[in-house]
Amino acid sequence: GAVVSQHPSWVICKSGTSVKIECRSLDFQATTMFWYRQFPKQSLMLMATSNEGSKATYEQGVEKDKFLINHASLTLSTLTVTSAHPEDSSFYICSARDPRGMKKLFFGSGTQLSVL
Amino acid sequence: AQSVTQLGSHVSVSEGALVLLRCNYSSSVPPYLFWYVQYPNQGLQLLLKYTSAATLVKGINGFEAEFKKSETSFHLTKPSAHMSDAAEYFCAVSGTQGGSEKLVFGKGTKLTVNP
Fold first, then answer.
1. Cβ density class B19-39: b for 16+ within 10 Å, e for less
2. Which residue in chain A is spatially nearest to B110 when comparing CA positions?
3. Confidence of residue B27 (pLDDT cuts 50, 70, 90)
4. How far is CA A73 from CA A1, A22, A104, B12, B52, in A?
5. Which of A101-105, B13-17, B96-100 is the least confident region?
6. B1, exposed or middle or buried, with CB in 10 Å at 0-12, 13-18, 19+?
7. Per-residue pLDDT averaged across A102-114, rounded?
């Protein structure tokens, strides 16, 4: 079946540095991918919708300059957390919509980010 | 606006016992409801979804859920738990059938199955 690969699965970084997370659709082309964030014991919250070849659409309250999203190809979207701070420590998860058939959403396995 | 409440962040059952994971929703439009499962170190997988066809929805791995509009509920059940069912389960609501970008998730319920 369709698979979405997310990398890395966990990352530790120093405060002030930037971290890039990749999300790949492995056997379908995804014009739309989604980025979520989950704090401990909280819901997954949609951060932004990544559109291939155009700017991402951010949800209210999400800083677009801090969370840079690039969807340069039909199989890859990246989320860059710029100038990370400890409060950015969270679980980030992506999903991609398979445009074929039932247009199912497939999720990556997530990235645990810890900012020291 | 839409929201989901999952009652109980942790549920523990014995192997072979009934599994009941509770989900209540709030939606200003006819909802589409989903249950996802996340096994350790894996992405979310769709278990089942309600799209206004039948109120009792059967999913994978023996799970099913019943949409009850009067109770605004969409509880997930399985008659007999298996050790492999241990995972985290998320209920989600959307205003679109595809279950796309405006999915609103609950906080999740971690299911433990005891031998």
1. bebbbbbebeeebbbbbbbbe
2. A41
3. confident
4. 21, 12, 19, 43, 35
5. B96-100
6. exposed
7. 86
H or E element in which residue B80 lies: none
Q: How far is A1 from chain B (nearest CA, A)?
A: 11
> What residues pair up with B44 in beta bridges, in sequence order?
B38
Type and span of the H or E element at A82: none
Distance from CA of A52 to the nearest CA of B (A): 15
Please identify which residue in the block is written with the tokens 């005891």: B114
- Using alpha carbons only, how large is chain A's radius of gyration in Å? 13
List, for residues A37-61, the tens digit of each pLDDT value. 988 778 889 999 988 888 899 998 9
Q: Are the Cβ atoms of A4 and B100 closer than 8 angstroms?
A: no
Residue A2 confidence (pLDDT): 55
- B98 contacts in chain A (CB < 8 Å): 97, 102-103, 105
Given an 8 Å threshold on Cβ–Cβ distance, is A32 in contact with B101?
yes
For residue A52, the model assigns a pLDDT of 85
Query: Maximum Cα–Cα distance for chain B, whole Å?
Result: 42
Tell me: the pLDDT tens digits for A22-35? 999 998 998 889 99
Residue B4 contacts A, CB cutoff 8 Å: yes
For tokens 């971290």, the residue is A19
